[in-house]
Design a protein that fits this description.
The structure holds 2 protein chains of 2 kinds. In chain A, 26% of the residues lie in helices and 13% in strands. Chain A is built from 7 helices and 6 strands. Chain A has a two-stranded antiparallel sheet with strand order 1-6. A two-stranded antiparallel sheet of chain A has the order 2-3. By secondary structure, chain B is mainly α. Chain B has 14 helices and 5 strands. The chains are: A alpha+beta, B mainly alpha. At the A-B interface, strand 2, strand 3, helix 2 and helix 3 of A face helix 3, helix 4, strand 1, strand 2 and strand 3 of B. Strand 2 of chain A pairs antiparallel with strand 2 (55-56) of chain B, so a sheet runs across the interface.
Chain lengths: 198, 333
């Protein structure tokens, strides 16, 4: 079984935000929530880098560990998903997440959190694959159709890679070898406890 | 003229082409340049601040934090440390109370009941106490559910039922925080006068508060133990309220690291608070004869007052018309 991962080649990302737009559109993400975002570090200075970031679908995911109602599950593909029927919107996964992935629609009074929403790796949720309920709650289930997440598919510079961890790591290594440089797979050490040496 | 201009254009074009071709080898040389050498590096940024932050173009500026591995430490606290602290504090306190009850038993009224009563807490004081107490019990149960529910309750009742219950518990926890906070403020203002520590408390503590043997160290309206409970409620209640609202209104007061710290303070203070209140509930109910009625009906037996709050009773009797009779006695301030 594949172990699905994301890899953002920061030396290629041009901060076009196509991944962000693709995600929002494909999954009908509610207003105010961004499952994927592009962060630019050292903006305007020499050596600036942009990184596209969403849920990294961590190994031994912190969100899953701290959830008080145990609403997370990891699929056979290594994708971390959750059930919005079980989620109580407490905010704990958000405190634990290293990547700021979980977000909450503002419902009701003051800052009260609704059901958590995050990147599903375009793999839907616990409902039946491709069902209407699944789409309404979690967005598209492209994985069940044999497709990869749309953010990576639509990346204009093929900076964002999605797929089996070993394969995308191999692609990245070849790139680094060919061009002679690479700033590493951002977030991999935190998410998967491994790094791709360049 | 037309042919001349065409000729010039051709010459310019040829020159431009020549320039382009001659410029060709330059990118080949550029392969020697390593842009990563001068670029920002993940591990270096993480070592500097333990977080990586940048600019973002979406409206939600808080999403500019790219990585923040500090959540790992918080996870360790939430899943391991807190459960130990809470477990030891609460089970330890229950153990101490059980042992104390089995060895010492109920603290009896040694001189029996006199049949005469004196007002100890007026209606407003009792209202404040019970409003805060009711909120506290619900807040404590719903709070403990967040920490201990998953390992203890979830396996018993299943995912759906546990989520449903936790959802309501969360609502209760959020909404009842308001009357609870109001209660803490009222408690602070109403009873501050009687709860300033003084010399009598030193004596009271030295004599063990009369917990052991049949000693009855004198006390004014509140003895040192009650004063301790008062300050635990005021300071502990203030802390849980402040940190709780930080969590309830995300990003109004702090970023995510502030919320992690707020949750740590909130939960540690809360479990200690629960442990302290267990002792308070014990001594106010089955732990001491004649104690509950003070907060129940508002009056206590005069003999109870003499045994436990002698100096307060003297003060009450010294008042004009104050002979310990129910009608004449004023509620103490």
């Amino acid at each position: 079984m594949a172990r699905m991962k994301f890899l953002c080649d920061a030396d290629r990302c041009i901060e076009c935000n196509a991944c962000v737009t693709a995600c929002k559109n494909e999954n009908e993400v509610p207003w105010g929530i961004n499952r994927r975002r592009v962060v630019t570090i050292n903006d305007g200075k020499p050596g600036e880098r942009s990184i596209s970031m969403a849920c990294m679908h961590c190994t031994d995911a912190p969100c899953q560990a701290v959830c008080p109602v145990n609403c997370f599950y990891t699929t056979a593909d290594g994708v971390v998903l959750h059930s919005k029927d079980l989620c109580i919107g407490c905010g704990y996964c958000f405190y634990a997440c290293p990547f700021g992935a979980p977000q909450y629609p503002k419902v009701g009074n003051f800052g009260s959190r609704g059901k958590m929403d995050k990147c599903t790796y375009c793999a839907g949720g616990p409902e039946a694959d491709g069902s209407k309920e699944e789409y309404e709650k979690y967005g598209a289930n492209r994985l069940a159709e044999g497709k990869l997440p749309l953010c990576a598919e639509m990346c204009s510079t093929k900076s964002l890679l999605a797929g089996d961890g070993e394969i995308i790591a191999q692609i990245y290594k070849e790139r680094v070898m060919k061009r002679g440089y690479g700033s590493g797979a951002w977030g991999w050490k935190t998410a998967y406890r491994e790094s791709i040496e360049s | 003229m037309a042919s001349l201009s065409r000729l010039i254009r051709l010459a310019v074009g040829a020159l431009a082409f020549l320039l382009l071709v001659s410029a060709g080898p330059v990118p080949a040389n550029a392969q020697q340049v390593n842009p990563t050498a001068s670029s920002v590096k993940e591990q270096q940024l993480l070592q500097e601040l333990n977080r990586i932050q940048g600019r973002i173009t979406i409206p939600d500026q808080r999403a500019g934090v790219l990585e923040q591995p500090a959540g790992r430490d918080w996870r360790e606290f939430r899943n391991v440390t807190l459960r130990w602290i809470g477990g030891i504090a609460i089970l330890g306190m229950i153990g101490v109370i059980v042992i104390f009850y089995l060895t010492r038993g109920m603290v009896r009224l040694e001189s029996g009941r006199s049949g005469r009563t004196i007002v100890r807490f007026n209606a407003f004081e009792r209202f404040t106490h019970w409003m805060t107490a009711t909120c506290f019990i619900i807040l404590a149960i719903s709070g403990l559910n967040i920490t201990f529910g998953r390992p203890l309750l979830l396996p018993l009742i299943g995912f759906e039922a546990f989520s449903e219950w936790s959802q309501w518990a969360k609502y209760a926890h959020n909404y009842l925080s308001f009357p609870f906070t109001l209660g803490v403020i009222l408690i602070f203002l109403t009873w501050i006068a009687g709860n300033i520590p003084n010399k009598v408390d030193v004596e009271w503590v030295k004599r063990g508060g009369g917990l052991f043997g049949h000693d009855h160290p004198p006390a004014y309206r509140f003895n040192a133990g009650q004063k301790a409970i008062y300050w635990i409620v005021v300071i502990g209640g203030g802390l849980v309220a402040a940190t709780g609202y930080t969590l309830m209104f995300p990003f109004y007061l702090s970023g995510i690291e502030g919320m992690q710290i707020a949750q740590i303070v909130h939960s540690i203070v809360a479990v200690l608070f629960v442990a302290a209140m267990l002792a308070h509930i014990y001594i106010g109910t089955i732990g001491m004869e004649g104690a509950f009625e003070g907060m129940g009906t508002g009056t206590v037996d005069v003999n109870w007052a003499r045994e436990h709050h002698a100096l307060w009773l003297d003060g009450q009797n010294a008042r004009p018309g104050g002979a310990g009779s129910q009608s004449a006695a004023q509620p103490a301030e």
